[in-house]
Amino acid sequence: MEDITPDTVATPPVPTPAEPADLPSQNAATPPLVLAPEAAAQPTKAKASPLVKAAQAYVTELFAQELPAKLTYHSLRHTEAVVKECRALAPAAKLGPEDTEALLVAAWFHDVGYLDVYDGHEFRSMERARVWLTEQEAPAATIELVPQLINATHRDAASETKLQKLLTDADMSNLARDDFPSSAELLRTEWELVLGKTYSNTEWAQLQLNFMLAHEYESEAGRTRYADAFKENVAAQRKTLKKTEKKKKKKSQEESDTFADPKRGVETMFRTMYSNHIKLSDMADKKASMMISLNAVLLSVIITYLGAKSSALGPAFTRNPVLAIPMGILLLTSLASVVTAILSAQPDVTSFKWLKKSPEVATNRRVNLLFFGNFTKLSLDHFQDSIRELMRQKEGLYTNMVTDVYYLGEVLSRKYGLLRTSYSVFMVGLILTVLSFIIVLLYKS
User: Is the pTM of this model over 0.85?
Assistant: First the structure.
């Protein structure tokens, strides 16, 4: 027996949820069928012949032994429900005993092909039914008729005869049941397990509604029995779809629509970002000031000593000119370090000179109206107009705040880059100065 796996099956037609069984079986208790008032007024049901009872026993045992756990919808419960509906439709359609027997046997066998294959299971059901009927020595007419009825349940087959229409209507009777939503979930689970196909709640609700809108009951007895309940289920499915779409839309807005309704977390984020940038800028300026002071002192001392020709060092440098090497290295180190530190501490104002010529584009995303370096390029009238427009648009306000943070980050990146260079030059210069001084002392000794 071939097992059913997602790799070996194709996408089946869109079936509809299963329905409770009518005939006694080993399955769980089945909830009562809720149909239109016209259907409730037809209590007469066809009696099961010995051949039908034998088919019931055979299929029940077959499903109990071979049904894969993945088939959550196309189980014995669904088969029993289809048989139940055929028993109700047969008297309404005024079928004779032979036709009723063929219809009920076809109902019992119409889904046994799922035990072998998923897509195209109808053909395996026909083969199994034909073999079993032959073993039971059923009439030749029944052996030919039952497979024809089962074939009508295929998605691409047309129901031409009265019996075929009755069987297909019974197979789709779950569309007119009150447990339609729960049974539809069984089908959804089966598709996920067998075919690996998953659907969101909205997609599944739309898929079910589309199928229901495209479906029509074919037999007169089926239309009479299912019409009212089917319309009610279609209306209920429409409501379900609207609810799922509304929930999806609300969830999407909660995840992304923070600009239209700013939350406290957004304001806290900007407040924290501004505070951190200001602290980092203050730290950078202090570090730069320290390097400027230190190197300024070193430069002053070196220049003073080198210029003091009449001091005690003058003759020393005259007698030992090689000492000029470490002093020169220290001088260049201090000069390079102090220059980069000054560049780091130098005010850097991001501005757009073209704003003077084109003030009407002050709403450009690159322009930050909250920073003096930008808005001072505008006239007072243009600045006031731009700010009023900014206050009316929450998204524009946040855009300007984001732009402001971006340019603050650019300034900080430049500051700390220059500071790193200043400290690195100072450190390397000191090391070279000490090494060169040691070499000079060793050379002299």
Answer: no
Quick check: is 3 in a domain? Answer: no
10 inside domain: no
Q: What interhelical angle do 50-66 and 76-92 show, nearest 10?
A: 160
Kindly report the CATH number assigned to the domain that includes residue 189: 1.10.1300.10
Nearest one of 66, 70, 109, 79 to 18, comparing CA atoms: 79
Among 118, 7, 20, residue whose Cα is nearest residue 67: 118
Domain finish residue from 194, 226, 256: 256
Residues 277 and 393 in one domain: yes
Q: Do the beta carbons of residue 163 and residue 216 sit within 8 Å?
A: no
**Rounded-to-integer distance, Cα 221 and Cα 16, Å:** 20
* Beta carbons within 8 Å of 130's beta carbon, 6+ residues apart: 143, 146, 147
Q: What is the DSSP string of 14-44?
A: ---------S--SSPP-PPP---HHHHT---
User: Does residue 251 share a domain with residue 293?
Assistant: no
Write the DSSP assignment of 247-271 as a string of letters.
HHHHHHHHHH-TTTS--HHHHHHHH
Helices (H), 72-161: 76-92, 97-109, 121-135, 140-151
Q: What is the pLDDT along the chain (445 residues), one digit of tens a residue?
A: 333 333 333 333 434 333 333 333 333 333 444 444 444 444 467 788 899 999 999 999 999 999 999 999 999 999 999 999 999 999 999 999 999 999 999 999 999 999 999 999 999 999 999 999 999 999 999 999 999 999 999 988 989 999 999 999 999 999 998 889 889 999 999 999 999 999 988 889 899 999 999 999 999 999 999 999 999 999 999 998 898 888 877 777 666 555 444 567 777 887 888 788 888 888 888 888 888 888 888 888 877 766 664 455 445 555 566 777 888 888 888 889 889 888 888 776 555 454 444 444 445 445 556 665 565 666 677 767 766 776 666 666 777 777 777 778 888 888 888 889 999 999 998 899 889 888 888 877 6
Rounded distance, CA 101 to CA 51, Å? Answer: 8
**Together in a domain, 292 and 409:** yes
- Write the single-letter amino acid at 428: V
- Domains of the chain: total: 2
